[in-house]
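Structure ticket #2291
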Amino acid sequence: MQRLAQSTISVVTGCWADYLGCASEHFQSNLTLAVPHLGIGEYHGVFVFRLGESVVASVPPPLLSTLGPRLKQLDAVSLVPEACIRLVGEAVVERVIGPASYAYADVTSLQPIASPGVRLLTLDDASLLEHLRLACSEADWKEAGGQTIDLPLVGQFIGGQLIAVAGYHVWWGCLAHIGVIVHPAERGQGYGKAVAGRLVEVAVSRDLVPQYRALEVNRASIGIATALGFEQCATSIALRLKPAPVA
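Resolution: structure written out below.
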């Protein structure tokens, strides 16, 4: 987090500490902590989160005594899905999601990109947003955050058509969790960066810390964040467990 202001780092660490149920000071260490689920609720799985050099493994409360000591063997350097699966037990893991990268930005790191045809959407743009949604795959739309017209949205318009959109959900009252989607026929031309860059400016003006999450295999999406000045800070790996056998 070298380019981010200290106040931004404090917001990020404080939000994740509250969500995971640990002290924010933990993220100044190089230790691994196992905790029972708090913010993640009743998720039947393990959520492993690395911020800086520290790791927190969130575990269903009934499994903390068995999985907690194993997961404490993880460290920030060797945090990969294979290590998590080995410690949890391959036989009980149903699905692995990640690694996902989390990046953050503020006024000290931002590198905005000016582009014509970019503006905030209004309720009058609902039909254009629906046309864009129908042109994209359901999986892509979901990964981009399932943008709806009631969210803060920025769109790229060409010839009256909406061909890219970025929006955010507010997490914990302090983070603007950003999603970006571009029409399949218009990708690779910088439109994702254009709408995301304008949206980041909106989020910062509303005293929110922009957060950009993408699967690490999605290099194009991560490239958008990097070009805008986002700082890669954290990683998560989620392991959904198989349903417990019925007695």
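Closing remark: Residues 6-102+235-241 form one domain.
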